[in-house]
Design a protein that fits this description.
15 helices
Amino acid sequence: MADENVTASENINETTKQATTPAAEASKPAVPSPAAMKPHAPSPAAFAKKAPQRAAAPAAPAAGFSEADVKAAEAFGRVADDGTVFVKDGEGEREVGQFPDASKEEALALYARRYLDLKEKLDLFANRLKSNNVKSREIDESIKTLAAETEQPAVVGDLAAIKAQFEALKKEGAAKKEALTQARKAAVAKAVAERTVIVEKAEALANSLDENTNWRSTADKFRSLFQQWQEHQRNNVRIDKADADALWSRFSSARTTFNVARRKWAQHRDAERSEAKTAKEAIIAEAEELKDSTAWVETSRKFNELMDRWKKAGRAGRREDDDLWARFRAAADTFFNARQADREQISSSEKENLAKKEELLVKAEALVPVKDEAEAKKARQALAAIQEEWDQIGYVPRDEVRRIEGRLDAVDQQIKAVEDAAWKQSDPEADARKSSFEEQLNAQLADLDGKIAAESDPKKKAKLEAEKATKEQWLNAIR
């Protein structure tokens, strides 16, 4: 059918050229081109097969256009006897083309359908303006195309309505473009704000760097922020190049600050690890020299000093530290295991010594109590022999020393108490001092009796009586 219509158009053009004079050609608009004709246009060739005396049937409405729509458009046009088609345009009419080899109905229907096609374009554009994804350039291009098509359209229909609809669409298009512009500005501002947040987070990380920074964690955070940047760039509206460049410069500067600081930290860490490794190797060398020592106390102190130096030496890296520590620990274990074995041996002998001293304690405690000086003298001789044997036995466990020494001292104190009492009774100097003091007290008491008898003041008399009572207690104590 399409090929047939093209052939019909070519025939129409050829016939028009033959029937139209040069002057008429100059004054009339060009006949529509084959490309402009619709595939559903009537075929003049088909009419040629009809009987000459038979009237042409009305053209069938085009697909998508109702017969009423076609008739309503045809009301704005007419066809002259020579096949020239006219359309009402303002107060007058305008020629839109010729269709000499077809009936007037066919010619009028053709141009009416063209009107409906044009109106459909306007309707489609109106619907497109309501879409959320229409672009400003698309609006401009559509308005430019429709402006050309509606300026002097070769159609039959309500041209005033078409032009009014086009003017309304121009205003809607301008409003839509303004809305798109504002929406884009808002979207760009939102995108700039969101990207600024990413930049500010990066700058905050860069500004927080110090000696306590967790570099691995901070690197992960920078990596995450860069991924957010890329995703935002891919999935959001494109922002102005100047803003994008300025934000990227800030973000890149923050990353550079972090990378430079981390590089310096890594260099400083490597230097510290090297120093720590050197220091720990020196400690290991000293430990290996001490490991076979049997000077338990002194060497234990030295190993404690080495451990303090080890802790202050710093870290040489996890793998290096593990290897160095294994070497140091091996030397320390050699010494401390030997010391522990020696202690276990000493502990066994100390327990034996404890048993021997407890046997001596039984003998010592059997010496008391003593009643007089003679028994105390015999007990003292026996205790001296026990103490000599005690000293020859040797050490006992440290936590038992106070207990057994205390029991032995208790025996000594009981004997000493009897000895001291006997000494006091037989000491002539003590007797002389006692007699002299007693005489002094008796004289003082006689003097106080006289003063009390002569004193009339109750307070002074009470004071003298109190002094007398005290001296009487002293006198009773020495008798």
